[in-house]
Amino acid sequence: MSLPMDQRRLLGAFLRARREALSPAVVGQPPGAHGRRRTPGLRREEVAQLGGLSTTWYTWVEQGRDIALSAAALARLAEALRLNPAERAYLFELTRRRDPAVPAAAREPAAAPPELLDTLATLSVPAYLLDRLWQARGWNEAAGRLFAPWLDSGEPCLLRFVFLHEAARQFIVDWEERARRLLAEFRADTGHNPDDPAMADLVRDLRRHSPDFAMFWNDHAVLAREGGLRTFAHPEDGRLRYEQVTFVPATQPDHKLVVLLPR
Prior knowledge:
This protein is an alpha+beta fold. It has 2 domains: 5-101, lambda repressor-like DNA-binding domains (434 Repressor (Amino-terminal Domain), Orthogonal Bundle), CATH 1.10.260; 106-262, Beta-Lactamase. The chain has helices spanning 5-21, 44-51, 55-62, 71-80, 85-95, 114-122, 141-146, 148-151, 158-164, 166-171, 175-192, 197-209, 211-217, and strands at 127-130, 136-139, 228-234, 238-247, 256-262. Strand 1 (127-130) and strand 2 form a beta hairpin.
């Protein structure tokens, strides 16, 4: 896939800036190594050597030439330039490539960020936090009451509750429409992490145990988690209507903060 000229120029400028900002000492180069430096930071050939890359290839990338950019080579380049997570993500977004590194989150669930849990506690309306597998990682008192059929069931995963628990069909008004939409939103998430083994296991298990999930999954519908009107038949409070708003925390993009505003 060839990048437009403007993006190639942006890529070259970004790499040059990161190269020039990288102190030789950080990568183990002693002061004065390889003679007097005419530019700050590392030389192009030093970056190429650190990444096990061709100096010519790296030079052409910085110059914005239209050349092949494999995900593996970009990963080595990210390591050579000591890119932080945000910089690495920017590199792969800019080049329209998928980072081959499997994030730690794909191996085991991370602890819910304390600042997000603190945010939940400050809200008076129902609010809860989902991780990348759509498991509830935290909720406030209002959400605990509203979603008692789910949160008291012992099933942390929203998808598993919706498709495998009979109580969900009674609690969620227009269950089929909502279930189809939830699944389309989850499919969009799987597109961001196609090599995530935990996501694959979740889909495989739900397809095996829920005929509805298997049928809806085969529709291949994809939607963003846009929010909108949500109606519930609460076992104690009767029919309740909310406007759902979903936020993606900048510091934890694999989580979702879901807030429901009474209507």
